[in-house]
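Much of what follows relies on a compact textual record of a protein's fold. Think of the row as the fold of the chain written in a discrete alphabet. An example makes this concrete, so a full record is given next.


***
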Amino acid sequence: MTTPPRKPALNADTSTFRERNLDQYIGPKLRAQRLSQGLTLADVASLAGISRGMLSKIENSQISSSLETLHQIVSALGMTLGQLFRDFDVPEGSALHVKSGQGLEVVRRGTKRGHTYHLLAYNQGPQKRIEPFLITMDNISEVFPTFTHPGVEFIYMLKGRLVYRHGRNTYLLKPGDSLTFQGSVPHGPEELVEVPIRFLAIINYGAGD
């Protein structure tokens, strides 16, 4: 009878790696919490009922702590285990932060002097899902073409007053007003009533576009 080949012992290595990562997370977290409260190693060790040396090794990620010991330490620090592990194994994340006045200025059909588009998010990968613009207008005599595009557009007025056309309908927009519509229907500013005008225009192209 042939003995089946043994699988490599990957689970043990993976478990050790995770424990090491956990120790390296717990130690600095406990130390930062202790220091933020102005407590010494001796203070926390006494409250937790463990030796100062053990606490030092845990803070320096030199040993692993049992769950019971860990509970004693966090209780001494006025924490819960939930608070301790809140940030463990959380994805780093990646957000695009555009500071005030630093949006990418773009030129669109109909853009003239006194009429600016600032794109507030870009470099979103091969599929464009959303485009948020901050639009400013200050030339009350400007005449605009109509626009069409895929997706749904959302407008939120921040400043000024504007008559906006969508298809056969027009809407007077004032600060705090919003308008949501299909981009495939011709639309655009009809009349600048009170300048300067500023509004957010967010185009959602959806997953399929």
User: Anything to note?
Assistant: The chain has a mean pLDDT of 82. Residues 18 and 183 are 49 Å apart (CA to CA). The chain has five helices and seven strands.
